[in-house]
Amino acid sequence: MSLGPLMIDLRGTAIAADEREWLESPLVGGVILFSRNFADREQLTELVTELHAIRTPPLLVTVDHEGGRVQRFKDPFFRLPPFRALGRFYDEDPQAALKVAASFGWLMAAELRAVGIDMSFTPCVDRDLGLSEVIGDRALHSDARAVAALARRIVAGAKRAGMAATAKHFPTHAGARSDSHTDIAVDRRELTELDGDLLPYRELIRNGLPAVMIAHVSFPAVDETPASLSSWWIGTQLRAELGFTGAVITDDVSMAGAAAGGTVAGRAHRALAAGCDLVLLCNSPDEVPGVLEALDGYVNPSAALRLTRLHGRGGMTWDALHDSAEWRKAHAALAPLCARPALKLQG
After folding, report:
1. 218 is a domain residue
2. Long-range pairs of 325-328 with CB within 8 A, sequence gap ≥ 24
3. Is residue 343 part of a domain?
4. What 3-state class would DSSP assign to 249?
5. Could you say which of 231, 265, 288, 347 would form a disulfide bridge with 274 (CB–CB 3.0 to 4.6 Å)?
6. Which of 45-54, 175-184, 197-206 has the lowest mean pLDDT?
7. Cα 220 to chain center, whole Å?
8. Which helix (H) or strand (E) holds 96?
9. Quick check: 282 and 252 in contact, CB under 8 A?
10. What's the total number of domains in the chain?
11. Domain span holding position 320
12. How far apart are CA 205 and CA 200, in angstroms?
């Protein structure tokens, strides 16, 4: 059984009967975990092991674990600083900051791999343009080259720990004031004005970026359709112009920013038709049966192969990881950034 085009979530710390039935469907390719799915490390490890045992090849088990205010698992996981702290350090000492960024990517991924998580949806490569509150301190920097340089090191660090990276939110959420979770998000810039936002993707793609998450943001000067539902953004720009060959994943299709696609099932259909490989559906369990019914018979062998390549590789046990010299070194490198007060980046 190959990995299907839908990723869903769970209601709690264990798999409910209806959730198990959904996860056994060939249309499902993975699970995204949230804070509500985490009680402690032992429970999380058992849950991930159980999820992986449901299917062959195993379902992808993922999480949003960026650091700062977007970190689903807390103690005993290291409390990662927000990306903005890396950007501020880069302004002080670029070379030292790049080394710390590599440690950031490695430590984040190594701890998640130690409990079996395949992938974290990170790094966020949206620039800080001072417009999008939902991005805010999740942005590495306002300067595109600084974002690209730091993101490359984060991705490399995660890869060394056995984890594939996902750059988000393509093409950018930086120029939209509205939060696409709760509202229609629009960026009115021309394509030529988006060069800086696309630069990190160009750099990461040249270095073999495994996955991209597509934003529910529309760019009416380019295409009225939200990027997540746009064959122009996915096929013409991302695939053809930028040469991306990895997996294309939507942001959560239950978000208000995807409303242009109609019903949730309709949004899933449109995203896949536009060229997405995996549709994320979160916090809407009542919608899952209808989406599965609407996608009945859907098969995309190329997409399934791209998704299979996102499985985590290797990894130490939790105790061995925390006893290692590399973990202690990474902890020491990141700890000073965690202690800094949150300040706004200057453009």
Report:
1. yes
2. 326/106, 326/110, 327/107, 327/110
3. no
4. strand
5. 231
6. 175-184
7. 25
8. helix 94-114
9. yes
10. 1
11. 6-59+69-338
12. 8
Is 169 catalytic? The answer is: no
CA distance linking residue 219 with residue 223, whole number of Å: 6
Q: Where are the beta strands (DSSP E) in 85-242?
A: 119-120, 166-170, 185-186, 211-214, 217-218
**How much helix, strand and coil, in percent to the nearest 5, is found in the chain?**
45, 15, 40
Q: What is the pLDDT of residues 196-217, one digit of tens each?
A: 999 999 999 999 999 999 999 9
Give which of 144, 27, 82 is closest to 334, Cα–Cα. 82
Amino acid at residue number 39: A
Catalytic option among 181, 183, 322, 331: 181
> Residues 98-108: what's their mean pLDDT?
98
CATH number at residue 319: 3.20.20.300
Total residue length of the chain? 347
pLDDT of residue 168: 96
Percent of the chain residues past pLDDT 70, beyond the cut: 95
Residue from 118, 197, 251, 277 carrying the catalytic annotation: 251
Distance CA 59, CA 62 (A): 9
Q: Is the peptide bond before 58 cis (omega within 30 degrees of 0)?
A: no
**Radius of gyration for the chain, computed over Cα atoms and rounded to the nearest angstrom:** 19
Residue 118 a catalytic site member: no
